[in-house]
Sequence to fold (139 residues):
Amino acid sequence: MNGNRTFTMIKPDAVEKNYIGAILEKINSAGFTIKALKYTRLSRAEAETFYAIHKDRPFFGELVEYMISGPIVAAILEKNNAVEDFRTLIGATDPAQAAEGTIRKMYATSISANAVHGSDSDDNAAIEGGFFFAQRDIH
Ligand code: CMP
Fold:
């Protein structure tokens, strides 16, 4: 049985373009409840830790530079089958491949500036949520 929580970030490109409200509205309309929410900016060390799983990939440096380039919104979301349903809602990592109506199709510009992050498994959703939020921040 799949879990009912996932973790997302609205990335610097989408924040800079004032898409926070539109993206949160799409998330709520798709049936996700916000359990925790934070407007913040990652330090280099935090971005490197958050994306450590990608540290040997050729795009790691670009990814970290990009993720520290401006503020982000971090959130824990709840819905049944959360991880899979959220990945369907946001669309493919590369917005050029994302389906019509998905968040990345509507708001992302490139594979790096792809508007939102979504956890890829229940385990990572718990790890990533725990990276940003203490128990007292989750309601
Ligand atoms: P995200 O879902 O946040 O998880 C890892 C991120 O790495 C991904 O979104 C993309 O933004 C980024 N990424 C993946 N592949 C590439 C690539 N080929 N070039 C640049 N960035 C990438």
About this structure: Residues 54, 59, 62-63, 93, 111-112, 114, 117 surround adenosine-3',5'-cyclic-monophosphate (CB under 6 Å). The beta strands are 5-10, 33-40, 72-78, 116-118. The chain is about 40% helix and 15% strand. The domain at 5-137 is CATH 3.30.70.141 (Alpha-Beta Plaits).
